[in-house]
Design brief:
Layout (H helix, E strand, L loop, with lengths): L8 E5 L5 H14 L6 H12 L6 E8 L2 E13 L2 E13 L8 H16 L4 E2 L7 H10 L26
Length: 167
């Protein structure tokens, strides 16, 4: 694995000034999974992630050498199996040229630290069954669930929303 020579990855909350970088990473993420979203959905997602006081959605970015090179979007929600909330890590993406440097791991570890401090029960996520690079990382930092995911698309075909999500 390539090393980050004399550089530290900084994981921090998403801020309004990150909009251009977030949109660049978001577009790369959607392209990676061959998904298209409406401009309205992208805008609503961006607004929800940076809205003050909206604790149920959070965005984090990874900076390396002063440049935003990775991002994650997550949803905090209640659940029926615990009094503590859980976190769905919905989107995780690192610039293609910066993969293999530990940035994805750093994003997950920072989210886990945040969750421990906040008292979340767990963090969960999913990825495409053919995204073996991501699975290699995920197998190293978490346990693979025995649960199978099902989706019932209520928007219908052609609604401009993604039919699958890959973290």
């Amino acid at each position: 694995m390539p090393e980050i020579a004399d550089a530290k990855v900084l994981i921090r909350p998403l801020r309004p000034a990150d909009e251009r970088d977030w949109r660049r990473l978001w577009a790369g993420y959607l392209a990676f999974y061959r998904q298209a979203l409406s401009a309205e959905t992208t805008e609503a997602t961006w607004r929800a992630l940076i809205e003050e006081g909206r604790a149920e959605m959070l965005g984090r970015v990874a900076e390396l050498e002063g440049r935003v090179v990775g991002m994650l979007n997550a949803v905090i929600h209640p659940n029926t199996w615990s009094a503590a909330p859980v976190c769905y890590l919905e989107d995780l993406y690192v610039d293609a040229e910066r993969r293999g440097l530990g940035i994805g791991r750093a994003l997950i570890e920072a989210l886990a630290q945040e969750g421990r401090r906040a008292g979340w029960r767990r963090i969960y996520w999913r990825t495409a069954d053919d995204n073996f690079t991501a699975q290699f990382l995920y197998d190293a930092v978490a346990r693979r669930s025995r649960w199978v995911t099902y989706e019932l698309d209520l928007a219908g075909p052609g609604a401009g929303e993604r039919s699958t999500s890959g973290s």
